Amino acid sequence: MESINLITDFEKIKEFSNESSLKKVAFEKLSKLKLPTKKSEEYRYFDIESLLEKSWNLIRSTSAGEIKKSNKIVIEDGVVKELCDGVEVGCSNTISIDKEHFDPLYYLGHILAGDIIAIRVKKDTKITIEHHFTQPNSLLAYRVAIFVDSNVNVTVDEKFLGNRAEDSFILFGYDIFLSRDSNLELIKSQTLKKESFTPIASHRFKIDENSTFEWKSFDFGSGDGLELANASLHKQSNINSNHLIFAKDEARRGVVTKYNHIGEHSKSNQLAKTILQDRARGIFDALIQVENSAKYTSAHQNSKAILLNDGAYMASKPQLEIYIDELEASHGSTTGQLDEKALFYLRSRGIELQEAKKMLILAFANELIESIKDESAKNLIHRDFELFYYGKSEIECINSCHNCEEMILK
Question: Strand 169-178 and strand 73-76: pairing?
Fold first, then answer.
């Protein structure tokens, strides 16, 4: 394990780039974009410099050794440890890199990562992917490429676990390639404690003709984290993305995206809902770009945020960049407090103030949670939300009480 400071050891980063032609291209792009600072638009509201200025123990992903057969894919510190049926997993350094990505850390991640984990899905399936982090005070760099074959429908339920990775920096990301007529639903759930690791996830999505990508991210907790994505939409392709964030204390949580409509009749629909408490900061920085080749595009984005007290802060910036007239597009942003009229109505029905607030917050979040098609994944998101907000969950109680609800109902 070697030490690295991302600002002062730039020559060491250059040495890593000599490992493959892909990394050389990534280094050329990184050299042009430069490492982000607090003045970088995508990181303006996120404390990126504190991560870049620190000296880290560098952990790079490596080729998998012995892999255990399981009902899920487990990636521990960048290495595949468990593998389920229905997918092929290997390592690669020859995938195509997105040369138009806006995020320099996308390229840095490709340079620092060792072997890229390549997952190919050839038949309809549901997959659980668990990311386990065990190393404290470390920089872990790894990337995962997902290839979905034509006419294949996939649901991926994604979780992040890392109680032993205190004060670590996780530089992670997906390169997702959807072939023609395929469908992928990616459901991510992540609850971060204040003293836990800080993830920066920088993704690339290539959505081919007639394919649909459903991206649903659920981020809770008191720890910092940021997710960035660059997507290209080809003819008659679709991306529907929902983001739910609930942050407390002084957490900084958010999404930064750029959706580029290239083909005709492509569609994007993005909805972010953010709940902020204490001195937490929420970030929604989203750009929809419609090229002159993308006639009859439908593009919509919206950000809604609730501030539970005066110290909370929301940075919301929905944007449209359009180079054609024949399209349907909209964007919007609202930030405010809980509806006083709704609170008054609930209290007039005998409901205590705190319980009324909980009901309104849950109703606000439920629109996105209920959009999940898979029932078991939906219940897990409900559980994670309730555990973070209430400190307990009715679903968790039912799951752990050995069917005592049957006795109660009798």
Answer: unpaired
Instruction: Give pLDDT tens digits for 6-31.
Output: 999 999 999 999 999 999 999 999 99
Q: Is 193 exposed, middle or buried (0-12, 13-18, 19+ CB in 10 A)?
A: middle
Residues 6+ apart with CB under 8 A from 40: 48
pTM (predicted TM-score): 0.93
Assign 53 to helix, strand or coil. coil
The full set of domain ranges for the chain reads 2-339
Task: Compute the distance between CA of residue 143 and CA of residue 117 in angstroms, rounded to an integer.
Answer: 6
On the 0-12 / 13-18 / 19+ scale of CB atoms within 10 A, 226 is: buried
pLDDT digits (tens, 9 = 90+) for 264-316: 999 999 999 999 999 999 999 999 999 999 999 999 999 999 999 999 999 99
Look at residues 232, 170, 160, 237 and name the one whose alpha carbon lies nearest to residue 197.
170
Nearest Cα residue to 51 out of 193, 135, 171? 171
State the Cα–Cα distance between residues 318 and 148, nearest whole angstrom. 30
Cβ burial 36-56 (10 Å sphere, 16+ → b, else e):
beeebebbbbbebbebbeeeb
**Both ends of the chain: CA-CA distance in Å?**
59
CB neighbourhood size of 109 (10 A)? 23
- Position 408 scores a pLDDT of 30
Q: Are strands 313-322 and 281-290 parallel, antiparallel or unpaired?
A: parallel
C-alpha–C-alpha distance, residues 97 and 113, integer Å: 13
Do you know the residue count of the chain? 410
